[in-house]
Each structure stands twice: as C-alpha cells, then as structure tokens.
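Thought: the user wants the 3D structure for the chain below. I'll pass the sequence to the structure tool as-is, report back what it returns, then summarize two notable features.
Action: structure_tool
Action Input:
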Amino acid sequence: MRIDSHQHYWKPERGDYGWMSPSDPVLYRNYLPADLRASLDQHNIGKTVVVQAAPTMAETDFLLDLAATDDSIAGVVGWLDMEDEHFPATLERYRKIPKFVGIRPMLQDLPNDRWILQPSVISALRTLADRDVAFDFLTHPRHLPFVLEALDAVPGLRAVIDHISKPGIRTGRLDPWREWIAKVAEKPNVYCKLSGMITEADHKSWSVDDLRPYVEHVTLCFGFDRLMFGSDWPVCLLAGSYDRVIGAVDEILAPQLNEETERQVFGENAARFYQLEAAAR
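Observation:
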C-alpha cells in the first residue's frame, strides 16, 4: 500500500491556526478528506498520516474525529502540552484512541530555539520513548543542534524529521544544514520525511533540480529504509499541485528506485515508523 506520511486537514473557522491569515486565498479555506480524494486516487495512495497544524488539543480531537469516519486516514499526529505536569496521563488517554500515532510540537514557531531542551520537555520525551510513541520534529536547520542534544538525552525516542528540516532551498544554501542533518541521521531511530520542500523553494519558479541536492543528501544519510514520502498538502499548494510534489520526488529518486526501495519510501517505512496496523485497532 502507498502511504502519504504527511498531510493536513483544517477548518479555519475553528480559530486556532494562528499562523494562517484570512488574506491568504490559497490556505485560508476548509481542506477536508473529500478535497484530497482525487489526488490520492490518481497516485494510488491508499492511506495518509494527517498531522496537526495548530498547537491545541482541540486540533488533535478534530483530526481524530475525522479519522474515525474516514478510512483513508491511517494515523493522526496530534499536539499535546509537553510542559504540562499531567502529560503522562494525557498521553495515556490518547494512546487508547484508534489511529492516534504520535505528537508534534511546532518547534519552528516557538520563540525559544532551545525549547526542546527544557527539563519538562525532556521528561515528556522520555515518557514518549518509554511508551514507544512517535515524535515529529518540525524544525529549521538552526534547531538541529538542539535536536541532537535532545536525542542524546533520550536515545530511545522514535523520531522523524519533517520536511528535511526546511533547508534554504530558495537560496541554494546547503550549509550548515548538510552537516547537521548528517549528524542527526547517525541516530538509527530517527527517520526523515521527503516533504515540505517545494514551499522552501521559490514558489513561482522552482524546478526539480533545485530540490535535487537536498534529496540526494538525505537519501545518502538516512538510506531508503528511513525515508518516507509526504506531500505536505495543502501547504504545498502555495508552490505546486499534489501531482508536482510526488512527481518531483519520483524524478529525483528514479535512478535509485527499484521495486523494494519504492515500496519503502512510498509506504512501508511510514507504516513501520508510525505502527499503522496497530494504530487502526
């Protein structure tokens, strides 16, 4: 089965998407499963992992409600308050809900780049590791040194880097991202999503060649057994269609893809990382 490991659904009228502006004609509208169905069918994507886009438990509940009624959603990566002293009990409650597969704080939006290293947050990460719950890192390259410290402090954490950590694709900048992401890849329990790249490029004029050195680098660092395709739909629509996103990844990886590696990147790795079969029960 082909799996999109990273996409979003939202309803702006819910009121907790602080990063979204009514002046944005592309993103400021409802995006729900029916809006994505044709693209999934076109590319034989059988399941998706839907990821939080607002830092609230109301967002987590909203996505889990959608997942309960839509078979295309294999898992939900939600948001929980990692600084709350009751985090372990809250996590335990959500773990019992079908299709809840992990959590993601929105590190890229927080004023403190070292937020992940706070004692309360490290304690929450240890709880996640102890209970084998997945964790998504939403970061820019400047966060990666602190990500490494957190991974050293919690070596058992099952983690994934979203959007290859948003390197400077628009300007063609590779360093220091190239060095830091390679260090992260040395952690065998950390995966990487081939997602969110075209919105880090020039929205109007990007080409596959703009993405190529970044995709090739993470492929070399993580290997095909720890990479997973994600569309980042509908955010990707700022720079291109679902078809262009998946086409770009296909084109770059084509020289190295065979039946096995294609299965890994476009499904098997996401299913294993998020434990999707167990989550459905």
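Final Answer: Structure generated. Residues 208-222 form the longest helix (15 residues). The chain has ten helices and eight strands.
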